[in-house]
Amino acid sequence: MTVKKLVAGNWKMHGLSADLEEIRAIAEGSYDYPAVDVALCVPAILVERAARAVPGFAIGGQDVHRAEKGAHTGCISARMLLDAGASLTIVGHSERRDAQRESDDEVKAKAEAALSCGLGVILCVGEELAVREAGEAVETVEAQLDASLPRTEAALARLPADLAIAYEPIWAIGTGKIPTVAEIGEMHAALRRKLAEAYGSPGERVPILYGGSVKPSNAGEIFAVPDVDGALVGGASLTAADFLPIVAAAAG
Ligand code: PEP
Questions:
Q1: Per the residue annotation, which of 106, 112, 168, 188 is the catalytic one?
Q2: How does pLDDT run across 9-23, given as a tens digit for each residue?
Q3: CA dihedral 150, 156, 162, 165 (to 10 degrees)
Q4: Which of 51, 145, 169, 226 could form a Cys-Cys staple with 59, CB 3.0–4.6 A?
Q5: How much is the average pLDDT of 63-88?
Q6: Is the peptide bond between 160 and the residue preceding it cis, with omega within 30 degrees of 0?
Q7: Is 183 a catalytic residue?
Q8: For the chain, what percentages of helix, strand and coil (3-state, to nearest 5) are there?
């Protein structure tokens, strides 16, 4: 089944007021590719200014708390992100799973909180290098996906439109290394089967993005892999000059 491609940028801890110009350039450039959904996930503190700078363009956050509100100093709820103008959020990025010790259960709860509040979700999964080298990547990531998928009724009602999965091998993030196209294809096919198993026919239409060192130079071959429905892009999303050629590659 063909799914509309989604190319999302993850700005991580990059972005100041001065960078709103770059966000404008990315948004305006992306309107040349209406066949591709494009989004930028920026630091929470920049969400409101970015959303005001590019009305109608999808601005996202990079994390949400699982609770609606409460005594969680320094945290941000899904409703806060939505209120600031975000339309989506990343959850379960490996940098958070690692540095903030986020478990699959935590990621699942965050995805459920975001979906039930009206945000779209990009849910990240991916294996460490040692797991890939041990030949256990597929079963490890399948299990991670299964344990991280949102399951509440409110979340399920938002499928397939508002959920995307990002397969991001941890060893490929920011390193310039990527799996072979055969390895990407094998993983995406396995994740597609898992999504169909978990969700039935909506699971066949949940986009599965690839993430990890996507650049203008390799985007075309990655997007040609079956079941690759787009990309989550870190470093190369910081400038329109790098990001827009990736969007163009997704447009085909
Ligand atoms: C990411 O962190 O989500 C990512 C894919 O980063 P990069 O593109 O820089 O590897």
A1: 168
A2: 999 999 999 999 999
A3: 40
A4: 51
A5: 97
A6: yes
A7: no
A8: 50, 15, 35
